[in-house]
Amino acid sequence: MTHLVRIRLEPLGVTLEVERGTPLQDVLFPYGVEFPCGGQADCRGCRVRLVSGELLASLDEQLILSASEIEQGWRLACRGVAEADITLDIAQWETVILSDDSTFEFTPREGFGVAVDLGTTTLVAQVLDLVNGRVLGVRTALNPPAAWGADVMSRIQFAMTAGGAEKLAATIREQIGELVCELLEGRASEPQLTEVAIVGNTVMHHLFCGIPVEPLSHVPFEAVRDGLEVFSARDLGWTCAAGTPVRFLPCFGGFVGSDILAGVLAVRMHESDEVVGLVDLGTNGEIVIGNRERIVCASTAAGPAFEGGRISMGMRASTGAISEVHLSGGRLVCHVLAGVEPRGICGSGLVDAVAAGLDSGALAPNGRLPGKGAWSLAPPVSITQADVRELQLAKAAIAAGIRIVCRRRGVEPAAVKRLYLAGAFGNYINRASARRIGLLDFPLDLVHPAGNTALLGAKLALFQGDGSEDYAYLRARGEHISLAEDPEFMDIYVDEMGFPSRD
Hints:
Among the domains are: 4-93, Beta-grasp domain (Ubiquitin-like (UB roll), Roll), CATH 3.10.20.30; 313-383, no CATH class. The chain has 14 helices and 24 strands. It has helices at residues 25-28, 59-64, 67-71, 152-159, 164-184, 202-209, 258-267, 347-360, 385-409, 423-428, 431-436, 453-461, 472-476, 489-495; strands at 4-10, 14-19, 22-23, 47-53, 74-76, 81-82, 86-89, 112-118, 122-129, 135-142, 193-200, 229-232, 245-248, 276-280, 284-290, 295-301, 321-328, 331-336, 344-345, 375-378, 381-383, 418-422, 447-449, 478-480.
């Protein structure tokens, strides 16, 4: 009897051959399936659908999934084991990764360089001709540590286990190295690779650089060291560009990483006469308010609701996700990504749905969902009272953070002349809905989606002289504050839990 079984992945059209008894978690992550709770069966985030074959539902799955879901073939990938040939539908995990095509001013230099945005979930790398600033190639991938949890705190917990930090560092370095080598393939006649610039949040910075993350696991969340870290490609075990310097840009402070420092560079906050803001909406939301004179930054634990996490039918923005909701003639109209039957709802759809619920009266200003059960959006997708509460927690954390950072900068929110939204969620969120729920209390014409500012900032870093810039001048004018230690944070946070009235 053969010891190999086949796993067919649709709609990818990929067939895997694995040893009988192989956990699905070990093989599905490279194909986009995420494990938000790190494979602990504490969420529904790794759902896949069994199309054919036999894959029995475990006791854990029977406790988390409904009987109808199990009958429809839904399973938790973190609990599945390949015992026989099966076909799985993983269409909901198709992902569009935000890159950057911005034009920018630069001082030409010889050679070419690679800019890398090391995100919590995804990786983007671009190779540029440093003479003319032209992007010569782009590669994207999922960030391997996402297999051990969707949020940075899950990564920290895993890193604190025996051998965990070394394993995470090795997987990150290897994946980035593969992207760099792919970008360099067939470019032997090009000028020499001059530099690789990497940006990421503080946890990714520490894991990649081999810095202990334990101090980031508790208040006051201070880094052991957060400055510029320099390696050679050879030191990292890369098979190409062995002598090339690889520089991980410095963090701004605390949980505000070099991805935000890069964002400040990208929107030119440090050159602005007017006070402007930069907000990255995610599990760990970062807020920066300032100008050329002084910049104040902070991070706040918003939770994963903006990314579909901890939402009963939440998913990321991929095939089958309700991404937009609006009222038309008194009824709900939902847009589903890729035009297929709805499978769940992503963060932008959730914000829209709650805004529509407030306008229609389906939701009270305190967030109460009248009646029992769930509010149906587009069958079979609905949201529950717990879903609304998760969004309230997330939006209150961001709104409170903005108020406190503005206060510490010495300005009222109304004095901010422009607010830039960084990252994928900020790029796709409906600004009117965000204002309606009290997430971003700014006039709509002042709120500007800024795309992947982390990647743009990393590209700008490639043109900084000989690459030895540690951005001391920028960090010196910046002040990082800890919201957890602010005596007014909890009061303001509670105040922001409610939704604005229709007026």
